[in-house]
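ASSEMBLY PREDICTION REQUEST
Request ID: AP-0331
Submitted by: J.K., bench scientist
Number of chains: two
Total residues: 694
Priority: normal
Notes: Please return the full assembly, not individual chains.
Input sequences:
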Amino acid sequence: MRKSLCFLLLFLSVFLFAAEPVFYDAQLYLEGMAFEDAPPFSRLPAVAEDLLRKPVWNLSRNSAGVAAHFITDATEIHIQWEVLNNFHMVHMAGTGIRGLDLYVKEGKQWFHLGTGKPYQAGNKRRLIKNLTAEPREYLLYCPLYDGLKSLYIGINPEAEITEIKRSEKPLVFYGTSITQGGCVSRPGMAYPAIIGRNLERETINLGFSGNGHMDPEIINYICQIDAACYIFDCFPNMDLEMIKDRTERELKKLLEAHPKTPVLLTPNIMEEDGWFDPEIYNACMAENAEVAAIYERLKKDYKNLHMIPFKQIRHVAVEGTVDGIHLTDLGSMRMAEVMGKWIKRCF
Amino acid sequence: MRKSLCFLLLFLSVFLFAAEPVFYDAQLYLEGMAFEDAPPFSRLPAVAEDLLRKPVWNLSRNSAGVAAHFITDATEIHIQWEVLNNFHMVHMAGTGIRGLDLYVKEGKQWFHLGTGKPYQAGNKRRLIKNLTAEPREYLLYCPLYDGLKSLYIGINPEAEITEIKRSEKPLVFYGTSITQGGCVSRPGMAYPAIIGRNLERETINLGFSGNGHMDPEIINYICQIDAACYIFDCFPNMDLEMIKDRTERELKKLLEAHPKTPVLLTPNIMEEDGWFDPEIYNACMAENAEVAAIYERLKKDYKNLHMIPFKQIRHVAVEGTVDGIHLTDLGSMRMAEVMGKWIKRCF
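STATUS: Completed
Returned structure:
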């Protein structure tokens, strides 16, 4: 009797403990961070804090574009994370601002598998269960408009998890709130993330909400990154004077530092009310004309400079934004389609 | 001196008062409400409160599908609104839950023109300025997951505003949270709203989050509506037993009450993790098989019954949801494309 009780307890304990996932620090598997001496899950090196404007530094702590990239044969995947600011916005879902987003690769296609909903600053959640125990490639995208104190990936104890290192150089995106992912529903739908999956490249997201000002200090940091392509989508944050003042000078620095690497310029998309409000339309087109003029001047000397014509992105925002300017999943998917084609053409 | 001061004051007062918009009660211009004796901006008659399950009644106070439909030659449009619950969800933007959404028709196409961001329970906001003073047709969509205490439309004093009455019967959608608009970025992106614009029809949104249970009382109310087409997308809220128990009986009531009006069934979309978790896949397909069997039995007697085949909507949710099941603007647009084609085919 006592013996069979022992067996029962042993059986139950194995069964119960087997059900508990084992958690691994996601920092072992990260990509999308260009600088080794950056704070955890952050986008610029710690020393940049003293060099940059305060809002740019603060935004660099948002984990946009940072993702855990790994292989596991797990049958279930859990996550546990704590955000830095518990930030909220009225025109973007919490899942996009401070949630996690899991994708899995099956054959040659990436599939959205689960979303970590951020009910409070610290959250724990199972994202998927009942998987067959085969090794699969995953991307777990970090919050777009918040930072992370910690992130752990939990798998069933029998499973293994391994980092994936890419052999190819990353794509570097410099831009605005839209580049940072405003206002998609979850981190994997930011257009740099979509392009990264479609082109099978690591992406570095240097979108800084409201602050894509071509600050010389930021361009200096971009020059330090060995990239496959540099994509500039910062003009919606720059007025005409700022475009005239900074664009040519700052682009030249990059074009000369990396003469064989393509640099792709994206003009302003048209705000949705711009088709009805001439003031908005004219401001947008004047800026785009200035960007085009700078492009025409520079491309004579720099064959690695490219620009997407405005007419190819004029449809992107139409019904594709939440507020006239910030792309939803619909607009973001359209932007990724156009931009992805241009990046491939630049290679 | 005193005289010229008088003139100056007169001039300034005319100028200042001219800049102030005149506000009109949006209740003068509403569509999307099938029942005249409903509470303000609500979807079911006041007497239904005693007949319905409490959650269904509460959800009927959400203004999903309610829209002001008007013509104005305004050069600027303002709105002022107060919501009922100031409701928040972590996986849907506040603009979709409790915001307002303005569309304008130009030629034959509808354009998104402006979004009312709900920073608190009561909000006032200019949505568009600098319009040419021509009469245009507008739709101002009300919150999807909150109700309204009040809504006023402000236009420049010289402008006029007139209600638009449609001559054609409305499309009636009965369903779940997805039908209600979960989780699009703003009210105009709920799939019934997109279909309404594409087919130029009034739409009645009877999506009840988590509660699309084919309650007999709700079907009785649907029978009272004289519609161009009834669309059922409620099965994601019904388990297999509930589908077996209620679908045939409740559909028969409607099919016999309106023998010449098309009734269109939509099977379950597949949750995104269903392609990897057999438990979810099998539950979805078993329910869809049951729905298909009921459809096959009923269509022998009721020629006005139609069903969208699952294979035509299997792509809708793929990368098109925020959390595996609730459609984003991307998924909602896809659903509207497929469903819109089927509705046109049914006419």
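REVIEWER COMMENTS: The domain at 21-163 of chain B is CATH 2.60.120.260 (Jelly Rolls).
SIGN-OFF: pending second reviewer
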